[in-house]
Amino acid sequence: MPIGNILRTSSLLLCTALLVSCGPPRENRIVVGSKNFTEQLILGELIAQQIEAKTRLPVERRFYLAGTYICQQAILAGRIDVYPEYTGTALTAVLKQKAEAGRDAVYRQVKDEYSKQFNLSVGSTLGFDDTFAIEIRGEDARRLGLKTISQAGAYTPKWRAGFGYEFMERPDGYKGLAATYGLSFAEPPRIMDLGLLARALKNKQVDLIAGNMTDGLIPALDLFVLEDDRHYFPPYEAVPIMRQETISRHPEVRQALDTLAGKISDDDMRRLNYAVDGEHRDVKEVVREFRQGKRL
């Protein structure tokens, strides 16, 4: 690269860094992150609005941070202060541990290990469990009389699968699922954006996907969730992950998020997801209405 280009590139990077640092001093604002799918956007916005409503701190939103690993690195590096996570994901994908107990034990294990290993605080569960949902078309489930993943295994050699990139890579994802149930497919699984999976299944581009149990499009698109009859997936309760340094400096942030404990049921989350995905409503408006309805 010519020297002039190097200098221009260096100047651009410096300007970008300076722009990012503009605004209120870092210690006087809270940065909320989220992963890059609808439910995470909703939860990130809910956390942001709750902090804004219950404290006097300005909130910066840094959503669509790809997947689990990017969010984990961002919070460890101090680029974000809080983001929504799931206990099963934290246990298997981040801590690299197996889930061999119930949801309460998984929560305690994650809470203890995040504090010890990362100096991160795990907040109270928000009330719903968004486990992975292995989905097929409702018409196929009825025609073939399928209810479980084990039963579907007899048909998958002729089916095409669609999964998100993270599901293909994480230890509680595709490889373990295929080994547990002896699944094989007509061709290698297609790796797709999470937001495209449900409609790809409905449109017969694929025949089986790994979605989320709280996806509002499941009933709307007549999809069917196969029962995880061999209990492969751990519990995935939603929780806020917070930097200990942040809540030590601003304990009111934790107090604000504690008011969300147990406030979102599985059905609530499905309706919120559908409002954004199915009805294409603005996420800020959807979250604002939810908070008003729950008197948050």
Which structural traits does this protein have?
alpha/beta, disordered N terminus, 5-stranded mixed beta sheet, 3-stranded antiparallel beta sheet, 296 residues, D-Maltodextrin-Binding Protein, domain 2, single chain, 15 helices
Give a concise summary.
The protein is of the alpha/beta class.
Shape: globular
Overall pLDDT = 90
Strand order of the largest sheet: 7-6-8-5-9
Q: What structural class do the secondary elements suggest? A: alpha/beta
Approximately how much beta-strand content do the residues carry? Answer: 5-15%
CATH topology of the largest domain: D-Maltodextrin-Binding Protein, domain 2
Radius of gyration: 21 Å
Main sheet overview = 5 strands, mixed
Distance between the termini: 55 Å
**What would you give as the CATH superfamily of the largest domain?**
Periplasmic binding protein-like II
The H-and-E topology, N to C, reads as HEHEHEHHEEHHEHHEHEHEEHHHH
Helix content: 40-55%
How many strand elements? 10
Q: Under the CATH scheme, which class of the largest domain?
A: Alpha Beta
Continuous helix count: 15
Which spans have pLDDT < 50 for at least 5 consecutive residues?
A: 1-25
- Total tally of structural domains: 2
Proper CATH architecture of the largest domain? 3-Layer(aba) Sandwich
